[in-house]
Amino acid sequence: MQKAGLVELQAVLAVATHQSFRRAAVAMGMSPSALSHAVAMLEQRMGVRLFNRTTRSVSLSEAGEQFVARVRPALSEIAAAMEGANAFRDTPTGTLRINTSEGAAMMLLEPVFFDYLRRYPDMRLDLITEGRYVDIVAEGFDAGIRDTDNVPQDMVAVRCTGDIRFLVVGAPSYFEGREKPLVPEDLLRHTCIRSRLPSGSWYRWEFGKRGEERRIDVDGPLGLDSHRIMIAAALDGLGLIWTSESSVAPYIADGRLVPVLEDWCPYFNGLSVYYPAHRHMSAGLRAFIDLVRERTS
């Protein structure tokens, strides 16, 4: 039998991990057709079906389970050996895959992500932004960046921002002919641009003042799950939004957005980058963590 290539073995592990050819292809940076072909060629040469495929699901066959159980540790050793050799380079090389939210990515683009690529030109940064929280290990990410309070307890977390304040803002045109809200409950009489959570429910805006907390279920004709589109809608005068101060600071400075309820707008714990404690840390991830610590020191 012709020997299996490393890419084919990695493809089998990716499909086994993600239980999806499409998600596995994204994780490996391949097209779904190329990945499917690699798996099929390996199955053909081995004369064994490694996966049970239907139109809706992919699962390991009995032979596939035994094969993956033996191959996974071997490939981990190969990856560790390659990474160990990489440590002798002057600069790290490879691909760093990070899962985060759109808002967090925008907040860290210039001070962290762009600087990282400038410092380490041999690195590739694969940044996936989505609202849902994912298992970064199961989905093939090196690290995640989320609200510090929502980092899984079994992960190592490193703060990458200070505390973050959220504000309610609207365009001057929106406030024409309207009284500005003075307490959170006044928002119930205003048009608000709602933010949809990954679960499908609407986010309730959070406020606090001298130990008193309020959560307001705002209403309005427009609901979004994109941070940038919410800001664009607010700039157009369509309604009020609840967003991080840093994301709208330039628009507040030039008068295109006006903050309200500032005395009710609290600070929250900032963002943290997190990664699994038990996994060998690649040189690329170590360089990223070092940069984060430098920025927050």
From TrEMBL:
Family affiliation: Belongs to the LysR transcriptional regulatory family.
A single Gene Ontology biological process assigned to it is: DNA-templated transcription
Q: Which PANTHER family match?
A: HTH-TYPE TRANSCRIPTIONAL REGULATOR, HTH-TYPE TRANSCRIPTIONAL REGULATOR PGRR
> Which residue intervals define the domain HTH lysR-type in the entry?
9-61
Q: Which Pfam families match?
A: HTH_1, LysR_substrate
Tagged with keyword Transcription:
yes
Query: What is the protein name given in its UniProt record?
Result: LysR family transcriptional regulator
Spell out the SUPFAM superfamilies in the cross-references: Periplasmic binding protein-like II (SSF53850), Winged helix' DNA-binding domain (SSF46785)
Known Gene3D superfamilies for this protein? Answer: 3.40.190.290, Winged helix-like DNA-binding domain superfamily/Winged helix DNA-binding domain
- List the residue ranges forming a coiled coil, or say none: none
Q: Which UniProt keywords apply?
A: DNA-binding, Transcription, Transcription regulation
- Naturally occurring in which organism (per UniProt): Luteibacter anthropi
Matching entries from PROSITE patterns are given as: HTH_LYSR
**From the Swiss-Prot or TrEMBL record, what is one GO molecular function term?**
DNA-binding transcription factor activity
- The answer to keyword Transcription regulation applying to this record is yes
CDD domains xref list:
PBP2_CrgA_like_5
